[in-house]
Every structure is written in C-alpha cells, then in structure tokens.
Amino acid sequence: MAAAAAPPQHQQAWWPGRMGAAFGPSFLCLVCLIYFIQGFRSFVWTAVSYQMKDMMKLSPSTSQFLVSLAYFPWSIKPIYGILSDCIPIKQRKRIPYLIISSCLSLLPWLILGLSQTLRTSADMLTALLIVQNLGSAMADVVIDAMVAEAVRSAGPEFAGDLQSLSWSSMAVGGILGNLLGGYALSNLPFHAIYVVFSALPFFQLVSCMFVEDSPKGYQSAIDEHKYVDSQSAVTAFSGKGSSETLGYEGTRRRKGTRKINKRRPMSKQAEANEKHNVSNNSSPPLSLRSAFFSLCTAFKQPTILRPMAWFFFSNVTIPNISTVMFYYQTEELHLEASFIGTARVIGWFSLIFGTYTYNRYFKRKKLRNILVFPGLLMPVLP
C-alpha cells in the first residue's frame, strides 16, 4: 500500500526555520530590525514631547503643530515608492535607498544629542525631526516593497508569514520602547536619550551591507517601462480592457523578442555595449511617466479606489490630538512618564495578539469577511 502523501515541506518545518530557508537570515534580520525600530521610536519621541513641554515651554497647540509638521514625510510615502521603483541607483532599487534612509534617520538624532543650541531651537528641532521622519518613512516604504517582492518570489504559502513577522517585530519594539522610555527619562538627560537611540539607525545601516540587491531584471524593467509608456496613454483613461490589453500585448511582445534573439545571437561584448547604451539612453522621466499612468489605471479599479477612499476619510475626519492629550495627562492628571509608557504597552500587546490571531485562524479566510467585524466594532469604541 502506498504511503500517505506527506504534508508540504513548509508545513513540516518549524516556522522560523522555514522562513529562514525561504528568505535568508540576513533579509529576515533586516526586516525585523527596521520594524523593531519603527516600534521603538516611542522611546525617543517621548523624550521629544517632554523637551517641548518642560525645556522649551511650548504651548500644547504649538507643540501639536510642530509634531504634525515633523510627521509630514509620512503623508507622502507613495512618492518614495515611485522614486525607488523608477530611479534605480547603480541599477539597484532597494538597498541604496535603505542606506540613504538610514543615514537620514541617524544624523538628526546625533546632531540633537550633541548640539544644545540646535536642540533648544524650535525651528531647528522641527527641521531635524522632519529629516529624521523622512528617513524613517522612506525605510518603511522600501522594506515594504522588499517584503512584497520576497513573498512574490517565495510563493503564496508565505503570504502572511512575513507580514506577521513584521508586525510582531514592531510590537516588540513598541513594548520595549515604552517601558524603557519611562525609565530613561527618569535617569538620563534628553541629549543622552537621543544619542542612545541613534545606535539603532546605525545598526540598520550596517545590516544593509549584508543583504543582496541583485541588479538582474533591471534591463527588462527598462524595456517594460518603454513599452508601457507607449501604451499607457491609451489604456490608463480608456475605462475598459486596459489590463487585458497590456497582458496580451506584453505576451506577444515578449514572444517576438525571443524570436529576434534566436535569429540574431550577440557576442558578450556586443551585449554589454547594448546594455550600456540602453541604460544611458533611458531617462528617469520616462519611467516616472509610466508609473503615473499605471497609478491612474489602478485608481480606476473599484477594489483599489474604495479602500483608498475609506482610509482617506477615516484619517481626515479624526483629528490628531496626541500631543494635546500628552499635555493633559502630564499637566492635569499629573501622570509620570513611566506610567504613560506602561499604559501604552497595552496597545502593543493587543497588536501582538491580533497578529497571532490572524496568522493562526484568519490567514486563509476572505479579507472581506475579516474586515466586517472591525468595521462594526470601530464606531462603537471610544
């Protein structure tokens, strides 16, 4: 009697083990570190809030305005994704931008920690915080793109694993950041907290050196941008048949390309010269224009437009009063920094619980059915 069919290999192996085998330890470490830093940012931003209130003596409205201005780079995250996709640096689209973002995240905290003059100036403090958030937002976009590409290459069975790992790392960072932030405020000056936190962007910068960002596929991406640019003006605003037309024409074009390559074999030197010429003749505006038309085509789809509209109105209609609430908690309720940090930990534990629940019970269920329950609970929650 034939033996029973063995379960898939990815179900037999231990979860961290199969993740490491599928994506590589260096890539997983980079993903965990970046998301951990995103959560651990509460460690240093609590110090920023206390500095604005106690040292700079800013009013709640002024502090709220400066913090909202400092977080503006997070509102334009799609721009970083377009730049990373359309303007590669040395034929690489991810790691160079991660290196740039790590430097932008590292330098402002070092400057704030070492210069008292800049640290006590509202204008310079806001400017440096904007630069720091620019680096953090760019790193968030780039690592999201790398996660999506890695999942696409590994297969659909890993669709929710990397996301669960990412959110779990962020939750762990948030828990430690809030717990240690209150302790640090009681034992360290503000400038020391800034310098200590700058070690994490430095580790992020070093970790980028161990992750490969292969330039393979760069030439085909340039050719695809050229073709899409010639077709997108017709299909982006036509309202029908855009995806089918592009898919059919792209397939026909690739078949024609393979036939031409079979008829005209090229030497290695000629192929290298051809790649060099095409790379020099390809201009960034061409790729940016193709990306713009692709976005227009995507926004016409109801499955994308409706969730985007929901996120837009949910953020517009709910005011951000986090800094004002911080003043109320410290000035009116007289809560200590350690208590505020401990209270915020509850939210991060909820994130871990939600991540585990989704990965354990809901990962293979329809997204529409999953979103019904949060949509019903959110209006009744305070």
From TrEMBL:
One term under GO cellular component: membrane
Topological relation to the membrane, as annotated: Multi-pass membrane protein
Residue span of region Disordered: 247-284
One Pfam family it belongs to: BT1
UniProt biased composition (Basic residues): 252-266
Cellular compartments annotated: Membrane
The entry's keywords: Membrane, Transmembrane, Transmembrane helix, Transport
Membrane spanning stretches: 21-45, 65-83, 95-112, 191-211, 309-328, 340-358
Entry similarity comment: Belongs to the major facilitator superfamily. Folate-biopterin transporter (TC 2.A.71) family.
Protein name in UniProt: Uncharacterized protein
